[in-house]
Design a protein that fits this description.
The structure holds 2 protein chains of 2 kinds.
Chain A (H helix, E strand, L loop, with lengths): L3 E4 L2 E4 L5 E7 L4 E9 L5 E8 L5 E2 L8 E7 L2 E6 L8 E9 L7 E2 L3 E5 L1
Chain B lengths: L3 E4 L2 E5 L4 E7 L5 E7 L6 E6 L5 E4 L2 E5 L5 E6 L8 E8 L7 E3 L3 E6 L1
Parallel strand pairs in B: 2-11
Antiparallel strand pairs in B: 1-3, 3-8, 4-5, 4-9, 6-7, 7-8, 9-10, 9-11
The chains are: A mainly beta, B mainly beta.
């Protein structure tokens, strides 16, 4: 299957700082990328959808100024958590789908963010 | 918004047993997907279903897309310890920009 690489896998940052998470599709061009947040023992919550070259579409309740998403190329999307607070600590996961007929999305390994 | 009811929430079984889990929805989906997630990892796609009534296998895994398009099940035969993890169903509708709606997951524990 298609490979999606997410980096870093773990990050610890201080309150007030910003953290950038990268999501790369390694062997296909991702026309659409999705960013999720997952709390312990819970399902994945969609934060935003990004299409290459256009602004991300955020889900209701997700602050676009806090969670900056950039999808500048067909193989890379980034999520920047700005002015992080302890309540932003979570598991963040990206997924990517190629264009064409296939609708399935492939997930990255996830990033465990801890804000201290 | 759309919601998926996934059951059971958790299962504790003996190695070698068969497992069945399912998802139901109040609305129709055009695609059903089943994922497995292990601790600290992202979900891995197991099976994708595109047509109502479709029955698809992937090794010991079998999944079906319900005729009504409002449900799907996943069976695992002859379970082994490495089947341990959380299994998620996900549904997708046309015109949704390929967004997925996830079930709450089924935690599977296999006792050797």
């Amino acid at each position: 299957g298609a490979v999606v690489s997410q980096h870093p896998s773990r990050v610890i940052c201080k309150s007030g700082t910003s953290v950038k998470i990268e999501c790369r599709s390694l062997d296909f061009q991702a026309t659409t990328m999705f960013w999720y947040r997952q709390f312990p023992k819970q399902s994945l919550m969609l934060m935003a959808t990004s299409n290459e070259g256009s602004k991300a579409t955020y889900e209701q309740g997700v602050e676009k100024d806090k969670f900056l998403i950039n999808h500048a190329s067909l193989t890379l999307s980034t999520l920047t958590v700005t002015s992080a607070h302890p309540e932003d600590s979570s598991f963040y996961i990206c997924s990517a789908r190629s264009g064409g007929g296939g609708t399935e999305a492939f997930f990255g390994q996830g990033t465990r963010l801890t804000v201290v | 918004g759309q919601q998926l009811n996934q059951s059971p929430q958790s299962m504790f079984i003996q190695e070698g047993e068969d497992v069945s889990m399912n998802c139901t929805s109040s609305s129709i989906f055009n695609t059903w997907l089943w994922y497995k997630q292990e601790p600290g990892e992202g979900p891995v796609l197991l099976i994708a279903l595109y047509k109502a009534g479709e029955l698809t296998s992937n090794g010991r895994l079998t999944a079906q897309f319900g005729i009504t398009r409002k449900d799907s099940f996943l069976n695992i035969s002859a379970s082994i310890p490495s089947d341990v993890g959380i299994y998620f169903c996900a549904g997708q509708t046309k015109g949704s920009n390929y967004k997925l709606t996830f079930g709450k997951g089924t935690l599977l524990t296999v006792n050797p």
